[in-house]
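1st attempt posting a full record on here, be nice pls
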Amino acid sequence: MIFEKIKTIPTSEELLDKAFSRSVRTMAGKTIDGPTTRCEANEAMLLTAANILSDNLKSINKMFPSFDQISPFYYDLTDILIGVDDLKKALNNVKWASEKIHTMSREYIGKIRGNKTPDVPRKEAFGRMSSIVGSVSKDLLLLGEARNILRKLPDVREEPTIIVAGYPNVGKSSFVTAVTNATPEVASYPFTTKGILIGHMEKNNIRYQIIDTPGLLDRPMSERNEIELQAITALRRLDAIVLILIDPSESCGYDLTAQLKLAHEIQDQFAIPSIIAANKSDRDEFKKPDEIEYVISTMTGEGIDVLTEKLIEMLPKVEPKFEEMPPLRDDF
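the predicted structure (as C-alpha cells):
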C-alpha cells in the first residue's frame, strides 16, 4: 500500500536533539591544538548538525507520495481524514526548511574559516537552525499524525469492486468468504471501530475485489455523520457496485421492514448500481419478499453462483489481464 513506507516522523525537538548531540560528539573526537584545528572542529560541528537536519527533513518530504499522482480513491480518503491542501503545505514547508538549512550552513562555513573565535558564528548558525526547525514544528506534528492515520488505511485497489452492505449478521462476511474461497483480509478503517473485510476473486482472468463495510452501510442514513457519508463517496471512486444483503428470517436480530428500509435508503442516497439479495434461505423461518429476485444461502451455497454472475455482469467491463510468456529459447 502506498503509505506503508512512511516512517515515524520526528518532532522538531527530537530532530534538534539528534543533530546537536551528534555535533557535540564530533567536536569531542577532534584534537584542538591551535587556531586552525579549532576552526576545523567548529566547521565539523556545524556541518554535522546541518547535514542531519537537512537530510532528515528532506527524507520526510520524500517519504510521502505525490498527492497529484495517487489514485482518486486514496486522494479522497486523505482529503477527508487530514486535508490534502494542509498536507501539501506542511510538506512544502519542511522542504523549504531543509533547503534553507543547507544553504545557510554553507554561508556560515565561510564565516568560521579563519575566524579567531569560530565558536561565535557556529553558535549563531545553531541558533538560526533551531529557529528554522522550530518554524516547522507544527508541520512535523501534522505529518506525524497523518502518517499514523494513512498507514492504517486498507489496501483497496483500483479493481472492479463489489461493496457488500446490510445490517449486522445478515451474512455479509460469509458472502465475502464464500465468493473469494479464502479467509478475507481484515483491515482497519478510520470511520468505524470495526474493520472491513477485503477479499478477491478471479473470473475469466479478471480480478474482482469484494469489500464488506461494517459500520458504514449497516445503519440508517439519518444516523450517519458527515465523514461516514464522505467515506462512501470515496468508495464510489472505484469501479464499484453495491450488493445489499437482507435476512428475511430475521435471525440477524433486525426485522425485515427495517432491513428493506435501509436497502432503499442506500439505493436512494448513492448514485451507484446496486442489487438486493435475500440470504439464509436454508432457515425454516425464511420467507422470500415479493420484490426480491435473488435468494442465496451462504451456509449451503444456494444461489451464490447465479448472484455472483449477475454482479459481475453489472460491473463496468474491463479487459482481462494475461501474464506475458517469456520468449521461447532457440538454443535447445
